[in-house]
Amino acid sequence: MAPKLAIEAGSSNAYHTGDWRTQQPVYQNKWPPCSQTCPASEDIQAWLALASDQQWQAAWRKLTERNPFPATMGRICYHACESACNRKHLDSAVNIHAMERYLGDMAITHSWCHESYGDKSQMQRVAIVGAGPAGLSCAFQLAQHGYTVTIFDAQAEPGGTLYSAIPDYRLPKLVLAKEIDAIIALGIELRLNTRVGKEVSESNLRDQFDAIFLAIGTRQPRQYPRKETSNHSVMSGIEFLHALNRGEEMALPKQVAVVGGGNTAIDVARCVRRLGSSVTVICAQDPHGSHHRELGTEMPASLAEVIEAETEGVQLIYRAGVRHLVRSGEHLSGVEVAHVDQVHDRHGNFNPKLFDGTEEFIPAGLVIFAIGQEADWQGLEGLEQAAETDGVWVGGDAVSKSKLAATAVGSGYQAAMSIMASFQGETLVFGVHKKAQITFRQMQLHYYPKQLRYEGEMSEQRLDGFKEVVKGLAESSAQHEANRCLSCGVCFECDNCWHFCPDAAVIKAEGGYMIDYDYCKGCGICAKECPCGHIDMEAVM
Fold first, then answer.
1. Residues 132 and 144 both lie in one domain
2. Contact present, 168 and 174 (Cβ < 8 Å)
3. Which residue among 170, 185, 217, 335 is buried most deeply as judged by most CB within 10 Å?
4. C-beta separation of 80 from 33 below 8 A
5. How many domains does the chain have?
């Protein structure tokens, strides 16, 4: 009897079982959620991978491709990247900002220098107005690519808000100065005490430079809206911080009230405590985690900063607004506050409505209003309405809603890329990343062991002067945190796909793997067992 199947004995390699498949695996790098949410668009997974191999300088160079302030941002950034970290669905987010600080501090200790992208000098000259994070970030990118850059700033020291408004207990001045020096060392001309519109005219900028980037920040404080017969014992939060950072002696009354719910208000309150006074923060919004009322009313200050402020004795009153200041002659005795019934008006603008009959007296000899800042366009009126087609770019806090330093750094990067593209006759569009995004649902988290998150130690003497509160990670802790990265969407060569393939169709190659599609039946086991979600199953067309 003839055999039913015309198959001869021999090697199974003779039969290309891959012809059966209707789908096939494809190795594809994806964009991790930490980088998706980073305002500076850092490739966080990449520099953490280098750090996990103890390639510290290479990790620093990868990080500073987008952010030349790692030691600074590692201290003050509110790390939205960690809120998005997939690891929090396993145990807790990777301590990305502490790792960033670790690399930045190591660069300062070892005097690592930024490198240019080649020896070729470009012909075009660029003027940058403002030596804050946006202006310095833009200058950094342009100088690395060989462009001649001059920064103009009206202040006596560079750094913008980073220098003038962030207290030393969060950001020591020496750390900021070292990172700025490393940027300027690329050959950037820095002209301080030079206000455009006064020491330098707008027409001079247009005549002498091929492009202008306006990064003027928001140094103009919003004023208390109520009419008062006296400004005695009233000041703005930004004026208070500026005076403190200039080293001025601050004689405060025993009791101080701070009005506002943002990070500036919390910084002011914590500084007041360090100067020996009690302080009450009057915030119109809800506390963190309270969404029982309308959405968008949660206080904008960082939760971590609020917790630290409360630990230091700062009192917070939520859903309250100032009805009026209570005076006896010129002497301020306190503020009358009332419950906030509605935070926003019908147009969605922040405009608290106070509820009659809920008044309460808060004793205070000084009221500090930290209710926001605005850009000061005096002397720049001719450039304010200019467009990129006129050779003028605007970025940083002057046009951003978030008012975060990391956002300003990202804005400076985008401006630099756009300016260089315009010089080459091209147009750049930002906002859409070419790589696919990945969530924890596309990963196999059970393959990863649970590990504790390491934090920097807190100083025990919190209110003893303005010494830095949070300490950096030790090397062993930094190594541990770098290793906690799940490498979301990016292969780390765990060999799972190679081990589990039933057809031996996965082939190890240098730097990764390949699929032998002659024998792959498209079973999808490799994709299912890939811990980091690097493998996709695609239909065979």
1. yes
2. no
3. 217
4. no
5. 4
Q: How many Å from the N-terminal Cα to the C-terminal Cα in the chain?
A: 41
163 and 60 within one domain: no
Closest C-alpha among 331, 349, 340 to residue 255: 331
64: amino acid identity, one letter: T
Q: Model pTM?
A: 0.91
Pairing of strands 211-214, 125-129: parallel
Is the domain of 240 the same as that of 350?
yes
Average pLDDT over residues 326-345: 90
pLDDT digits (tens, 9 = 90+) for 219-236: 888 877 665 556 779 999
Alpha helix stretches (DSSP H) within 65-209 = 70-76, 80-84, 96-109, 133-144, 161-164, 173-184, 202-208
Tell me what the mean pLDDT of segment 500-507 comes to.
93
Please answer whether residues 326 and 335 qualify as being in contact, where contact means their C-beta atoms are separated by less than 8 angstroms.
yes
Closest CA to 473 of 84, 92, 74: 74
Residue length, the chain? Answer: 541
Residues 385 and 271 reside in one and the same domain? no
The sign of the torsion formed by the CA atoms of 329, 324, 266, 339 equals: positive
pLDDT 10s digits, 61-110: 999 999 999 999 999 999 999 999 999 999 999 999 999 999 999 999 99
Structure tokens at 535: 């493998």
H or E stretch including 86? none
Nearest to 335 by CA among 261, 243, 251, 224: 224
Q: Whole-angstrom Cα distance, residue 291 to residue 270?
A: 26
Q: CA–CA separation, 497 vs 529, rounded Å?
A: 7
